[in-house]
From TrEMBL:
Annotated source species: Azospirillum argentinense
Entry-linked SUPFAM superfamilies: lambda repressor-like DNA-binding domains (SSF47413)
Any GO MF annotation of the entry: DNA binding
InterPro entries: Cro/C1-type_HTH (IPR001387), Lambda_DNA-bd_dom_sf (IPR010982)
Name used for this protein in its record: XRE family transcriptional regulator
Lineage: Bacteria, Pseudomonadati, Pseudomonadota, Alphaproteobacteria, Rhodospirillales
Amino acid sequence: MTPLQCKAARQRLGWSIEELAHRALRSHTVFGEFERGKKPASAAVLASLHRTFVKAGVNAEAIPTDAGDETEDAACSQ
């Protein structure tokens, strides 16, 4: 998952970084730095993001890296 995919998935859910951190049981600083490209996410953080978004019904990896909307249906679980 790229930082842009993370941010797009979070925004589609209407979540702040703090809300994402709460749901993923992680520090909001970790996600903020990842989304801004300041620090890469560890494998554990990426797994946590994936689980949190899937649980909420969004497949962040299906979101185009340019954050376009043409595959929005593919990013949302059926």
